[in-house]
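Exercise: predict the fold of this chain.
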Amino acid sequence: MDTVTRNKTIKLIGINEAEIRTSISDLIDNENVNIEIKPFDAKTYIILTASADSEEAAKDLIKPVSKDIKKRFGNYIYSTKEKISLEMSVVNLLEKNELTISTAESCTGGLLAGRIINVPGVSDVYKEGFITYTNKSKRKTLGVNKSTLKKYGAVSMQTAKEMAFGAALEADTDVSISVTGIAGPDGGTDEKPVGLVYIGVCIKDSVHVEEFRFSGDRASVREQTVVSALGLARKCILEHFS
């Protein structure tokens, strides 16, 4: 009899491959289900594959393993459906909580806004995007203080915080995401190397900022920044409205 092979993909954000591998080390040697951990950009996929005499039997082998993994990783999982992207999961979360969003970008230059706007029906939640590439535009458009830029620099936790707050205020949104960093290949220093990025999320006047250090070329740093920004926004919304 021919065997039928089925797989299930569990998509995670905000946790790295090493942490995932450690957390499910006891499941890796499962005889019936092959477990593959596949990282790319700033996301990680866990792919479960099983073969059996029928589709239903293959699914039955995957089900308990999938359930166990979901229990272990909770909110790190943004989807288990093939067609649901990270940006879709963020937009769905905004819609569920009746929230509006804006973006303020420096090194990503509109890439984050474009990713969010890829989602059909996003006009219900997305209001405005700002590309503030220069210090002058950060001051003029988002109200970032001149003293902040002078003391801490454009690529700093303080600037990311003021960018996020300024975007929410200017666009009159419940949520805003700010991005400022060094995408390279030039512009890095020992103190602030290429790949250093600060991402801020403002929710109802409260701003949370995180520092990221990405590797790779300019395009890769920008892509990882967009994914991490969406992941951080999702995390902050879940924490704020849980």
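Check your answer against the key: The mean pLDDT is 96.
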